Amino acid sequence: MIERGNKDWRLMSRPRLDFTKETPRSSEFDDDYYSPEDGLAESTYVFIEGGDVINRMQTLQAGETLTIGELGLGTALNLALILQAWSEHGPAGARCHVITIEKHPLSRSQLRAASARWRSLSQEFSTICQRWPSPIPGCHRRAELIDGLTVDFWWEDVSDALGDLESYGNRWVNVWFLDGFTPSRNEAMWTKDVLRGVATLSCDAAHVATFTASSDVRRSLERVGFKVSKRPGFGRKRECLGGVLDLTQISNDEHIAPVRPTAWDQPACTEKPQQCLVLGAGLAGSHIARRLAERNCKVTVLERGTIGSGGSTQPQGVIYTRPSHKHSKLADFSLTAYEFSVDHHQRKFREGSLEEGIDGALSGYLQLASDEVLERLASAFDDEDSPLKVVSREAASSIAGIALTQGAQHYPSSGWLHPRAICTELLDHPNITVIEGLGDTTLRQGDDDQWFAIAATGDCVATGDTSVITTAWEAVEDAWLEWLPLQPIRGQTTLLPSQGVLKDLKCTVCHAGYTPPAKGNVHCIGATYGLNETSTEERAADHETNIQQLLSNVPSLDSAIGSERPAGQAAVRCATADYLPIAGPVPNETEFMTTYEQLRHDRKRLINKKQPNIKGLYVLTGLGSRGLTSAPLLSELLVSQMLDAPPPVTRYLHQAVSPARFLKRRLVKG
Ligand SMILES: Cc1cc2nc3c(=O)[nH]c(=O)nc-3n(C[C@H](O)[C@H](O)[C@H](O)COP(=O)(O)OP(=O)(O)OC[C@H]3O[C@@H](n4cnc5c(N)ncnc54)[C@H](O)[C@@H]3O)c2cc1C
Ligand SMILES: C[S@@+](CC[C@H](N)C(=O)[O-])C[C@H]1O[C@@H](n2cnc3c(N)ncnc32)[C@H](O)[C@@H]1O
Fold first, then answer.
1. Which of 109, 282, 386, 430 has its CA 20 to 30 A from that of 662?
2. What is the value of pTM for the model shown?
3. 593 is in which domain, residue-wise?
4. What average pLDDT is seen over the chain?
């Protein structure tokens, strides 16, 4: 499992590429990325044909998924060929999931240069370039890179990424592309441990395809259960290897299982949801409802008031992140979720599902900061594709269009969104039914594991096999979640008319609060923090606090603040004791404490039991001040848990947001 502790933050290192006859060559490994004779033909022959990809795609039934794993993404030529094959052969209703691992990801400009010659793949490369992840270590999910196909870009060393995926104990992969430079020039990609990881993650009858004919690789693959065969190599290469996993041939002595962490974050019982109840129609409820609906689950969303009427009520909010020069679960989650959210919303604007200026605008945001903070971030995030750029006061002022008194972190891809519009767009799906105005609704579990939604009137308004609680700080009202350490935090925003200098504002400016460019003719600025307060009446004193906070950080806006009484709204956020959100199966508290009792005495003890969970019950809450950032990724994570599908994050982040972490902490800390 990947552990980062509080090591210094480093972006991924870029490869050094030389081009000979248009073929990229790694100076570090002294090897070509693909055959200089004809890379496209080689990749098609060795991987697409060698992995039986097209046949496997064509024979998928609706609802089935083909999972392809690749060691060494490189210039993404293989990936582009997978996209092309899926566009041509992917059956309706089936899915393709690609997990690709790369330690030295190309920059976007290197990718463009390397792919320029592949005219027949120009559409595929344009899609890949557009959604190419930043060089942040970890897993970057790109949902629906093309229709029905999702890619997980793991920016990690191969053995770290495989170890992390192996830690779940699932066999996900149907086809492997082993493409890690010639074994003699890069042994790390072909170790026995790496090939054991490949086998451990493989389904029965998984194919492995590779360009090499190395006898060491052949022996290692055979040792871990692949039936290996040789076939003619491409071009001047005499032979190459292929293999098919035969699970019945794996002997326990030869196939040494990896050491897995205690699976306290993995539910013992999961069943694919067919009919799901979602309690709450805020950002959390809307995102999870949509992800489930897209996976063919019928969803009923049950809302006390109206869509987006709880914490998600303000007219403008910002997709923020919180980087640090040191790793921590909070900083790492915040950046991973930020990247995913930006990609998700960019796609929605591109597709026209969200309207620029009305539902939001990805015109960037500036986070004002001290020189000391900026200096540390500048060295940790120094890369042409970094999600944040450190800019001087002058540059920040020019980006914002108004005078600023400090330098800033600039996030050019982010911006502001209208949370209620986001919820409405997400809930608009044929598989989703929304029932509003139900008053306080509760969930009950029947004897046959069915779930019933009981409205304030006492009537049962919907049933399902699965339920997700997304009622923010009120999640603790449900008996199964009483133990969650949630805190309500009141927040009020203030609406300012767009006048004077404010009219010039071109991108959101954040300090302790935030000021976005106008939506219509109004800027929604905020926000106040009232810990443990749940009242939502509008207060004149809170408007004063917001305006004073703005002027003390951006004094140039003084003349834009009129004398009229400001208006605004208050709502309640939901924070957790460790500031990380909560997404996962709901553990049975009593059984959890008994199952993992030994952790009280030895926190590192390996206990070979998955989390005893309440069948069919999940929770998504604790989004704090960052629901726009975290809800998309958390929903993706939750759906992967429900479907036993590959996770969109590293395991330590999976654990960091698990609701069960609070119970585990109670055991470990006594
Ligand atoms: C003033 C303010 C400013 C903010 N600014 C930002 C920002 O700039 N960027 C950002 O990312 N985030 C911001 N946030 C935070 C963000 O809005 C929240 O993280 C997000 O709205 C939380 O979404 P949620 O779905 O978890 O909760 P909510 O939006 O509160 O949704 C919970 C829903 O559950 C319903 N409900 C509760 N109990 C029941 C029940 N028993 N039965 C039926 N329904 C029930 C509620 O009516 C509500 O609609 C801000 C929040 C506030 C208050
Ligand atoms: C031959 S290239 C892959 C070519 C690629 N499949 C393509 O379509 O362009 C090998 C890749 O393996 C990567 N690599 C090398 N060592 C690695 C390691 N230890 N972990 C992960 N990736 C590694 C290299 O950076 C390089 O991109």
1. 282
2. 0.97
3. 275-310+421-485+578-669
4. 96
